[in-house]
Design goal:
Layout lengths: L1 H16 L1
Length: about 20
């Protein structure tokens, strides 16, 4: 689903920023 994709993207960006 697109919603899941967005959540995954956000988590990935946050993980990279962390």
């Amino acid at each position: 689903e697109l919603k899941e994709s967005k959540a995954d993207l956000l988590g990935r960006i946050q993980g990279l920023k962390k």
